[in-house]
Amino acid sequence: MNELKAIIQKIVPDGKHGSPFAVATSEELLGSITFSLDPDVWKEKTIPQNGTFVCLSDIQLKRAGWRALNARFWRPSDEQAKKN
Hints:
Blueprint: E1 3-12, E2 21-26, E3 29-36, E4 53-62, E5 65-73, H1 76-83
Parallel strand pairs: 3-5
Antiparallel strand pairs: 1-2, 1-4, 2-3, 4-5
């Protein structure tokens, strides 16, 4: 599983460690996946909103749950790639 299609469930503006993060879910993975909205993880200019589809990659299982180390908006080209 290189890339995962997920949908944003919640944006947390002030995380425990001071950085904003997002919580997403995917039909392909049980449980939620979090990712930082810092520029080293979130590769877009604007912050996603609840209900937005995103592409998550470099996903790791941590003690607190799944974490994606790369995230961006889901694009039409991603849909085409999934069908092939």
